């Protein structure tokens, strides 16, 4: 688990202007990180309340959480057989494939709020200044102060 970007910044892999690869290449724009859930609307509500963003429910299988209607954010899709990852994972266990890093201004207060909304605090905390939690569907996420 990381505590967010390092002070060195991300590695340089090409142009840094948003949504561009080159003057002759295709345009790419990341619109959403998608999480699977047994109850998409419930998980969407959690993330909307935690981040202070808007929840847009498209139907019972898909919802979006955005800081604004046409801004990148999170999407949640129905996965009836969703199994939360083990973390830290052991041999043969479902491994975490990603997690969300959420910057906050007060880790202790942010943890309390996340717990009120339905998150759970992980027993294993690998860094003193970062807290690892799980959302109501078991996706790990980190709260950190930059």
Q: Regions with pLDDT < 50 over 5+ consecutive residues?
A: 2-16
Average pLDDT value?
85
What overall form do the CA principal axes indicate?
globular
Q: Strand-and-helix sequence, N→C?
A: EHEEEEHEEE
Number of helices: 2
Biggest sheet character: 4 strands, mixed
Helical content, roughly?
A: 10-25%
Strand arrangement, major sheet: 1-4-3-2
Give the C-alpha Rg: 17 Å
Fraction of residues in β-strands: 25-35%
The chain-level structural class is alpha/beta
| Ends apart, CA distance between termini | 15 Å
Number of strands: 8
Short synopsis of the structure:
By secondary structure, the chain is α/β, with parallel strands linked by helices.
Description:
- With 146 residues, this protein is an alpha/beta fold.
- The chain is 16% helix and 27% strand.
- It is built from two helices and eight strands.
- The strands form two sheets. It has a four-stranded mixed β-sheet with strand order 1-4-3-2, covered by helices on one side.
- Strand 2 and strand 3 form a beta hairpin.
- The longest helix is centred in the N-terminal third of the chain and has 12 residues.
- It is globular, with a radius of gyration of 17 Å.
- The protein starts with 31 loop residues before the first strand and ends with a strand.
- The N terminus is likely disordered.
Tell me the layout of helices and strands.
Blueprint: E1 32-37, H1 40-51, E2 54-59, E3 62-66, E4 73-78, E5 100-103, H2 107-117, E6 120-121, E7 130-134, E8 140-144
Parallel strand pairs: 1-4, 5-8
Antiparallel strand pairs: 2-3, 3-4, 6-7, 7-8
């Amino acid at each position: 688990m990381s505590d967010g970007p390092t002070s060195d910044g991300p590695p340089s892999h090409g142009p840094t202007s948003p949504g561009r690869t080159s003057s002759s290449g295709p345009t790419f724009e990341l619109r959403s990180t998608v999480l699977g859930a047994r109850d998409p609307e419930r998980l969407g509500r959690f993330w909307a309340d935690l981040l202070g963003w808007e929840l847009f429910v498209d139907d019972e299988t898909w919802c979006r959480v955005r800081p604004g209607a046409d801004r990148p954010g999170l999407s949640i899709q129905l996965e009836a057989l969703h199994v939360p990852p083990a973390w830290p994972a052991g041999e043969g266990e479902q491994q975490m494939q990603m997690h969300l890093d959420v910057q906050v201004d007060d880790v202790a207060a942010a943890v309390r709020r996340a717990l009120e909304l339905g998150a759970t605090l992980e027993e294993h905390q690998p860094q003193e200044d970062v807290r690892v939690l799980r959302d109501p569907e078991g996706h790990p996420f980190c709260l950190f102060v930059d």
